[in-house]
Amino acid sequence: MGWSVMNEISSILAICGACISFYIGAGFATMQEVVQYEASYGSRFLIVILVAAAIYLYTNISFATNGNRLKLNRGGDIYGVYCGVFGEKIGKCAAMFFDYFSAFFCFMSFVVMCGGANSTLTQQWGAPFGVGAVTLTVLVVVTVVFGLQGIVNALSKIGPIIIAMILLVSVVTSVTGWGNFAGNLTKIDQGTYADVMQQVGGGNPLASGASYGGFVILWFAAFLSELGAKNKLKDVNIGMLLSAIFIFFAAGVCCVALIGHIDATAAADIPALVLAEQISPVVAVAFAIIICAGIYTSATPLLWTAVRKLADEGTVKYKAITVLAGAVGCGIACFVPYKELINVLYGLNGYLGFVLVFAMVAYDLRTKMSLKHGVENETAGIDR
Question: Which of 68, 135, 209, 344 has the most CB within a 10 Å radius?
Fold first, then answer.
């Protein structure tokens, strides 16, 4: 096997790992988002997974393809590309909205990470509520202010480890809970757990799948557009496809495990730890540590992205906004229950992110027709 092939495989695996690390945050690692988006739909959970997977694949292929074709200087310029279908004036306004809202969404997602840290430390070690959020905020603020990028780079490899740990716990507990699976599906469908289990989508699995696929669009837009511009398109798309297989296969196995043990997981803030406890307290402790590391690696770039939109890195203004944003986010997480944070913030942003899909489809169809007739009208909405 030649060096070029080895380098290509290494690049694909690196992109796959980056996509997984970016996708995996407090919600997925704790399995709380899996409960709300998928398991809460009982026998219809596969519909949610398929819809979300389809949106994930289409949008990310579109981001990477257009980023590569247009060689965008900045990942955020992709909003101008898609929103150009609305005309010059409306397109620029829409692009500006999505560009700034994506930064605001990153801040709100940081708040969710703080909530996940709170619940993890409280549920696993009995820490006073608030300790997790404060500890995470201090670590993230210090990292963002002083640029301890080496730590983040080292810990960013935690994404594939979390997926492996989730699969291990889910497969084992799927087997132990399989005898209850069919009966519990019926209970969920009948609304037995409706009072204790939050649900996104208002009972419509298509809406839940659209929201689940939509809430990460605003995370991945700039990220994959820039990856596409700076790497071989084939490597990016293969890496992203592999990440989708791992992520949504893991989500499906999680659903089987969660439903098999729904009596214990329905009301839990951190369902993943409930499942891990079914195997061994040692496994639960190890999983809690990995969850915390995963939350940190997700929370750091989220806060950095939000702050970087308002100030240049390294300036006094940048450092002041970082401290203030961290404190505000920590405060919100200490007063709003974790399950409510995921239900409201992820759900709302998912629907808004899905709005962008309509602009993407219109742009991609128009571009395909233009290229077919030898015309490239592709810079609408971009200030070069």
Answer: 209
